[in-house]
Structures are given as structure tokens and as C-alpha cells.
Design goal:
The chain is built from 16 helices and two strands. The protein has helices at residues 3-24, 32-35, 39-50, 55-68, 75-107, 111-114, 126-134, 143-153, 155-165, 167-176, 195-209, 220-243, 249-276, 288-310, 314-342, 344-351, and strands at residues 183-187, 190-194. Strands 1-2 form a two-stranded antiparallel ribbon. Helix 1 packs parallel to helix 14 (288-310) and helix 15 packs across helix 16 (344-351). The model has no long low-confidence stretch (mean pLDDT 93). It is a multi-pass membrane protein. This is Acyltransferase.
Length: 354
């Protein structure tokens, strides 16, 4: 893979994961600050919801692009790549989901922490425990990996659809994004085979198969216009979010269009900035999967605990929103380095040899 493309994917992936951490640091749920739409709410809303909205499709796009990169489209290569994804996706999925399930299961027996959980896991039937461990995981960030595993299994069909239906297949998948139902299946309150992920993954696959250039070279006014239009979209979403139900067609349209513009803006602005101030690849970026896998549950319950004691102090909550994101990221990196040093084989299993 070309070095500039490799660096772009690596660097954007890292900062995308950091923005996912920021999203999960949101600390205003069910507070009056959120209900009354105070200034602090809008600041956190921009970072935790609007800015982070674009990074999930970006992850799927990159995943689809990488799967078909240097792919000769033979049956042998499909088998090899799918087998490789078993090591990089399936094994880490079950290890992390099982690990966090056991941690939460144990923590619920600690009296001073048990009241932060609505329903104790040990009181649930075994089928529900298994469901929360591996299908609708307590380690909730891994819904993305669950979806990605489905898409990898579907890659031969995705390739055939691109081969015979060409760009029309992308148009069809894009149309599905504007349906009220966001996925093909809805089982026990879980959306499976989500249209947004499938569309984004397929766009990445299409880009790779057709050998399209993912490094942009627009004139400065294009970048400026995309930023302005994205900002207008975010502003409109403030109003739409309060005026319409989430499943209303206007809400869906505004959310999707803003997301597309945001994706385009971030993806191309990287190239604009990189031409002026070249991004350098840092060892820190290599820990991005561990950060993604380790931060979610711990950050969520840390947030619940400090919100209980701080209350409606908006300035402190806003400060902690940003600080906790950075601290969670640094803590994950520290844990990753410790594991790498002390038990490298365990680290390799947990990260799929990344």
C-alpha cells in the first residue's frame, strides 16, 4: 500500500477512535442541563454527537477499503482474508466481550457500586447473560466489531453485487439509509446488519476494487465550503433534534446529509492539512484498537460515579467531559504498554496481532 494512503488510514483511524472516546464521555444524560438545553449541553452535543457521528461510517469505510486492498478477487484470496479476519476480529470480539462481562459481573457484588446497575447479571437467566455477553455486549462499543464480522462474511456477495450492479448497488444501499428501520433485522432490541455500516463498508470496498484515489487535491475554496456547509448542517440539527422525533423523515434526512458532508470534510481536510504540515506516524497510533476495546465500560461507569457526586455543576461537568476523554485514552495506552511488556502473547490475542 502507498505510504501516504497507509499513513492517512492509520492517523484518521486513531483520531476517529479518540472521538469515539469523547462521545462516550458525554455526562449530561437525564440531567436538567440536558433537558433545559443549556450552553454546556450544546458544546458537549457538538463534540459527543455531531462530530463523532461521522467516525463510525469512516471506520466501516476504511474496513471495506482494506479488505479489498491488494485483493486479486480469487476464491483463494477471499478464503485467506476471511480466515485472517477471524484472528483480527472474531477472537478479540469474544475475548473482550467475555472479559468485560466477567468484570461487570464481579463488580456488581461490591455494595458501594452495585446500585449503579439497573439489574444484576447474576439474577438473569443464562440465555440473557449469554446475550449480553456476546450479542448485545455489555462492552457496548463492540457492536461495531459484531457488525463488521457480518460484513466480512458477506464480502463475496458484496463483490458480486459491485461487479454486476456497479454503482447502482451503492445507490440502492444509500436509499436504505433513509428508512425508519436502520437495519435488516431487529432482534431482542438489537439492530443487526445495519444499513449505515453495510453502505459505508461497501463504499470502501467499491473504492478499493475500482482503484479510486482516496487522496484529495481540491482547491482551497472547496475545503472552506465543505466546512461552512457542515457547520450549517450541525446548526440545523440542533433545531431538528428538538422539533421532530428521531424516526421522522426530516430528522433522518438532516442527520444523514450532515453526516455525509462531515465525512467528506474530515476526509479531505486531512489531505489539505497534510500538504502544508505533513502528519507524522507516531507509535501512539498503534494502540488505537486497544483504546477502542478497553475504554467503553470503564469510562461509562466512571462518568456515572462522578456525576452522582458533582451534580448539576455545568462548568465542572464540561471540564471533566474533555479531561476524562484524554485520561481514559492515556490510561488505555499505559495498560496496553504494560501488557505488551509483561504478557506479549496475551496482548497479541486481545488485539488480533495488531
Amino acid at each position: 500500500m502507498d505510504k501516504s494512503v497507509s499513513n492517512k488510514i492509520r492517523i484518521l483511524s486513531f483520531y476517529s477512535i479518540f472521538m469515539v472516546v469523547v462521545c462516550h464521555a458525554y455526562n449530561l444524560t437525564n440531567l436538567d442541563i440536558e433537558t433545559n438545553r443549556d450552553v454546556v449541553y450544546y458544546i458537549e452535543y457538538i463534540f459527543a454527537l455531531e462530530l463523532s457521528n461521522i467516525f463510525i461510517p469512516m471506520f466501516f469505510f476504511i474496513s471495506g477499503f482494506l479488505f479489498f486492498k491488494n485483493h486479486d478477487l480469487s476464491v483463494f484470496t477471499f478464503k485467506r482474508k476471511i480466515k485472517n479476519r477471524f484472528k483480527t476480529l472474531v477472537i478479540p470480539y469474544f475475548l473482550w466481550c467475555g472479559l468485560w462481562f466477567l468484570i461487570v459481573y464481579g463488580v456488581q457484588f461490591i455494595p458501594m457500586l452495585s446500585h449503579f446497575f439497573e439489574e444484576p447479571l447474576h439474577e438473569m437467566p443464562l440465555w440473557k447473560q449469554a446475550w449480553l455477553a456476546f450479542v448485545d455486549p455489555i462492552n457496548y462499543t463492540f457492536w461495531f466489531i459484531r457488525e463488521l464480522i457480518f460484513y466480512v462474511w458477506l464480502t463475496p456477495l458484496i463483490y458480486l453485487a459491485i461487479k454486476y450492479l456497479k454503482f447502482y448497488f451503492l445507490i440502492f444501499l444509500c436509499a436504505l439509509l433513509f428508512l425508519q428501520q436502520p437495519s435488516l433485522f431487529y432482534v431482542n432490541n438489537v439492530y443487526l446488519l445495519q444499513f449505515l455500516g453495510l453502505f459505508s463498508f461497501t463504499c470502501g470496498a467499491y473504492t478499493s476494487i475500482k482503484k479510486l484515489n482516496i487522496i484529495s487535491n481540491f482547491k482551497p475554496p472547496v475545503y472552506l465550503a465543505s466546512i461552512v456547509i457542515w457547520g450549517i448542517g450541525i446548526f440545523l440539527n440542533f433545531y431538528v433534534r428538538d422539533a421532530y422525533e428521531e424516526t421522522h423523515i426530516i430528522s433522518i434526512l438532516c442527520k444523514r446529509i450532515t453526516m455525509f458532508i462531515g465525512f467528506f470534510t474530515v476526509w479531505t481536510m486531512y489531505d489539505f492539512i497534510n500538504r502544508k504540515y505533513e502528519f507524522t506516524n507516531k507509535p501512539l497510533y498503534g494502540y488505537r484498537f486497544f483504546i477502542y476495546a478497553a475504554h467503553g465500560v470503564a469510562l461509562t461507569y466512571f462518568t456515572k460515579i462522578y456525576v452522582k457526586y458533582i451534580g448539576e455543576n455545568d462548568i465542572v461537568l464540561l471540564l471533566l467531559f474533555f479531561v476524562s476523554s484524554i485520561l481514559a485514552t492515556l490510561a488505555c495506552v499505559a495498560c496496553a504498554k504494560l501488557l505488551q511488556k509483561t504478557t506479549p502473547k496475551v496482548y497479541s490475542l486481545l488485539t488480533g496481532s495488531r
